[in-house]
């Protein structure tokens, strides 16, 4: 977690995601007048939903199973759960939740393709460590949502891939 967090802070993934969300929000709101007193940020919905749907154990395990074994069952179950969740989240967070589908597709696709290419490196221990990191990231995201904390969960995302690096080093 520490190594991944340091990497994430150095490249500031959180700032990049928020910037992307702000640009999308600016494009979608161009020429619109805000008549409501409370405006839900498209950027906030995009970032929160992207993180929520990407950092879970099902996202990682499902994508790994797809890449390693060609088994998509976990991804199918996750997509059903995410569909229901995204509908509910979109009621409060707006269209940014829908836009997070692109980020989820890219994230899970990269993991699945990477798993396919790194079949020999991904041991059970490495996968277990990746799941543990994913669970901690979900906890941090929950703390942000419930307690209104300001943990930059996006900056911790590289921690998901640090076990792969240690797995490769361990094989040498």
Automatic annotation (TrEMBL):
InterPro entries: DUF554. Signal peptide: none annotated. Keywords: Membrane, Transmembrane, Transmembrane helix. The chain crosses the membrane at residues 46-68, 88-118, 130-147, 153-171. The keyword GTP-binding does not apply. This is Transport protein. The lineage of its organism: Bacteria, Bacillati, Bacillota, Clostridia, Peptostreptococcales.
């Amino acid at each position: 977690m520490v190594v991944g967090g340091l990497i994430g802070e150095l490249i500031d993934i959180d700032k990049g995601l928020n910037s992307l969300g702000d640009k999308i929000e600016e494009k979608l709101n161009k020429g619109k007048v805000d008549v409501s007193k409370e405006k839900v940020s498209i950027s906030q919905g995009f970032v929160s939903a992207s993180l929520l749907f990407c950092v879970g154990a099902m996202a990682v395990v499902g994508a790994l199973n797809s890449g390693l074994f060609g088994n998509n069952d976990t991804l199918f179950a996750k997509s059903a759960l995410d569909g229901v969740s995204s509908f509910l989240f979109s009621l409060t967070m707006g269209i940014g939740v829908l836009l997070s589908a692109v980020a989820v597709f890219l994230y899970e696709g990269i993991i699945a393709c990477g798993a396919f290419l790194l079949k020999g490196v991904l041991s059970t221990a490495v996968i277990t460590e990746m799941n543990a990191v994913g669970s901690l990231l979900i906890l941090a995201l929950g703390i942000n949502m419930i307690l209104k904390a300001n943990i930059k969960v996006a900056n911790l995302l590289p921690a998901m891939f640090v076990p792969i690096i240690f797995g490769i080093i361990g094989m040498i």
